[in-house]
Amino acid sequence: MQHSLSKSEPVTASLPAFLVASPMLVILVLAILVLTTLTAGCTLFRPDPRDAMEPVLPQGYALYSDEPQATARWWREFGNKELDALVEEGLNANLDIGAAWGRLRQARASAVQSGADAYPSLDGTADYSHTHSGGSSKRDATSESHSVGLSAGYEVDFWGRVEAVATSGQLDSEASREDLNTAAMTVAGEIVSRWMRIQSNRQKKHILHEQIEANQTYLELVELRFRNSLATALDVYQQRENVERVKAELPPVESEEQLLLHELALLLGRPAGSIRVADAPLPGLASLPGLGLPADLLASRPDIRSAGLDLRSADWAVAAARADRLPAVTLGGTAAYSGAQLATLFNNWMFSLAASVVGPIFDGGYRVAEVEKARGVVDERLAVYKGAVLTAFKEVEDALAQEKWQQRYIEARQSQIAAARVNLSEALSRYRQGLDDYLPVLTALFTVQELEVSEVDDQADLLLYRVALHRALGGTWTDDLVQPAGSESGSAVESGADQAGQRQTNG
Question: Model pTM?
Answer without folding.
Answer: 0.82
